[in-house]
Amino acid sequence: MKIDPENPADLSAQIAAAIRDAIVDGTLIVDERLPSEAELAEQFAVSRPTVREALKRLAAQSLIRTQRGATGGAFVNRLSFEAAQPQQITTSTLLLSMNAVSFETACEARYALERACAPLSAERRTADHLATMRAEIHRQGHPGLTDEAFCASDVAFHRALVDGAGNPVLSYQLAGAVEAMQPLMNMITFTARSRGKIIELHTSITDALERQNAAATQSALTALETETQSLAQSVFAERAKKPG
Amino acid sequence: MKIDPENPADLSAQIAAAIRDAIVDGTLIVDERLPSEAELAEQFAVSRPTVREALKRLAAQSLIRTQRGATGGAFVNRLSFEAAQPQQITTSTLLLSMNAVSFETACEARYALERACAPLSAERRTADHLATMRAEIHRQGHPGLTDEAFCASDVAFHRALVDGAGNPVLSYQLAGAVEAMQPLMNMITFTARSRGKIIELHTSITDALERQNAAATQSALTALETETQSLAQSVFAERAKKPG
DNA sequence: GATTTCTAATTGTCTGGCATTTGATTGGCA
DNA sequence: TGCCAATCAAATGCCAGACAATTAGAAATC
């Protein structure tokens, strides 16, 4: 673990990179304790605040955790899917909002990915997954539901669908795509009629999964994508007509 | 932007979260300059090192960039897909290696996601994408190629396939899944015979894409998945027989 | 008017110190 | 001997102040 002493700027970034590399290539293993801040400062020939800045960078990526006290210190974190997901969602959300990604593009990606889960989910979904999906469908039918709550329930429905595939890697990747869409979906006003259509399609998806019919699940998802796209298009067209 | 003064621990994390929230909800917009470190320290009633630790956390996530000098400071970064991808790949790689995800599970997720790109890629792939894929296939046929270089070429091939879909959201999500598999793939020894089979399947994939035949692309991908899985299984079985 | 120099603002880093937390040690007491 | 409380030591969390390096703009000079 070495840093470049020639370049006196960005010392904390260099130190963070050195430690990160050591974690990635296995030099530092899970739950291993890093040297204390004072020792690291000595090793890298920098001051303690600089070391601390480096450690905070790593902590921001959940690569390490710190613990105070006599046996405390910085420990290599076991990066869990649960810990990585919130950050993945934040990043995906910002990517969409800051890069002028069209609703169409985001929606296309999301449904393409969900269709990828469909065959696995049709095979492996448990009664629990189906129950969650039906519960969300039921909630979506409630008349007093705000648009935002409707979207949140939609996300919960789709996450259950994805989790039904029983593949944590898929669930992790899809969480970003599905949740990041929520701010975009929240821009849509859902009329009673469009809600009814969506609920109908959610029901066909759930039915198809229950019958373990992968093809039917995929075509229902495609229908839902088409419906969502045209709904968004009409909302945006309406908004363009009367600005303000 | 407020922090909880009651809880004296984790001040830098609280400040980082406050600023991150301001960026996510649009209070701070792209390229906007944050107050100087001294001003932030005053606002949050903490010291400058604490503010700096918070800023480093945000810099680690590419949410801000800093610039020295008279008109310098911390600026909200436009989070680009290019900047987010390396971190997404690092995270995905660590998730696989630290969570004992089986080769089977990771492989299944990867090919499910790639199949999701196939229809779009069949529709939109350019001559450039096809040329890249054929070039990688050609490289893979070179006899002197190390296993590691073969894997790297494999990754390049699949990334071209994914990029062919012309959807940056898909490319971003898939990059994590594809690249993170590389360390797992590197554990496999590729015989001349297995390389030949893979090259053959890569060729059918490229041919199907060239003919814009989505179904053929998907079934070729499925065949490649089956081949990869059985290859891995035999390698691991062999390794289990004679340990060391 | 162009070039050079100066200046002010800002981040990057260091030194030194104190507060807080927490496990380990040690001493006292039953 | 066994248990419990007080103490201790190590480590992180935080702070104050200072200096160095960089950079843009202003001022001075040719």
From TrEMBL, chains A, B:
Q: Name one GO molecular function term.
A: DNA binding
Q: Which key words are in the record?
A: DNA-binding, Transcription, Transcription regulation
Superkingdom of the source?
A: Bacteria
Keyword presence, Transcription regulation: yes
Q: Which PROSITE patterns match?
A: HTH_GNTR (PS50949)
User: Which InterPro entries does this UniProt record tie to the protein?
Assistant: GntR_C, Tscrpt_reg_HTH_GntR
Domain HTH gntR-type as annotated: residue spans: 9-79
UniProt xrefs under SMART domains = FCD, HTH_GNTR
Which CDD domains did the record assign? WHTH_GntR
Q: What is this protein called?
A: GntR family transcriptional regulator
Q: Which organism is this entry from?
A: Roseobacter insulae
- Taxonomic lineage: Bacteria, Pseudomonadati, Pseudomonadota, Alphaproteobacteria, Rhodobacterales
